[in-house]
């Protein structure tokens, strides 16, 4: 009986380690894609996945090319393991609006939507058009961050 209990504990511990490891791998899919693609992905591969960049800056005398993209994301996409996301989550009451950023669309039955936030991805490519580095940041600081408002 003790052997079975020992095996059961070992399996439970292995499962717990796998869950903790998997939790560290979640987040926005773009972050995972770019993390795995540093020094591997080419500009054409990124265009195939993200579409054309919103802005592109290529220096005339050589050096890194810099692309930027802007994407709307919700808190659930940014922090999928947040226990607060398991409930209804933060919602905004809004009047009909054509904007997808936390507002209802005209004619929609839905009066509440999860707020979306704009994130800017800045990608740097070396002279051979391979991803060198990237970063993600807020397009506009959220209200309440460091006491400031947008």
What do you see in this structure?
The protein is built from four helices and six strands. It has helices at 2-23, 29-37, 43-50, 75-78; strands spanning 55-57, 65-74, 92-93, 112-113, 116-125, 131-138. The strands form two sheets. It has a four-stranded antiparallel beta sheet. Strands 3-4 form a two-stranded antiparallel sheet. The longest helix is centred in the N-terminal third of the chain and has 22 residues, at 2-23. The protein is flat and about 70 Å long. The N and C termini lie far apart (63 Å).
Helix content: 25-40%
Put simply, the count of helices is 4
Average pLDDT rating: 76
The percent range for strand residues is: 15-25%
Low-confidence stretches: 93-98
Helix vs. strand class: alpha+beta
- Principal-axis shape equals flat
Order of helices and strands: HHHEEHEEEE
- Record field, number of beta strands: 6
CA-based gyration radius: 21 Å
Spatial separation of the terminal alpha carbons:
63 Å
Tally of distinct domains: 1
Q: What is this structure, in a nutshell?
A:
By secondary structure, the chain is of the alpha+beta class. Helix content is 29%, strand content 23%.
Blueprint (SSEs and pairs):
Elements: H1 2-23, H2 29-37, H3 43-50, E1 55-57, E2 65-74, H4 75-78, E3 92-93, E4 112-113, E5 116-125, E6 131-138
Antiparallel strand pairs: 1-2, 2-5, 3-4, 5-6
Which key phrases capture this entry?
150 residues; alpha+beta; four-stranded antiparallel β-sheet; 6 strands; flat
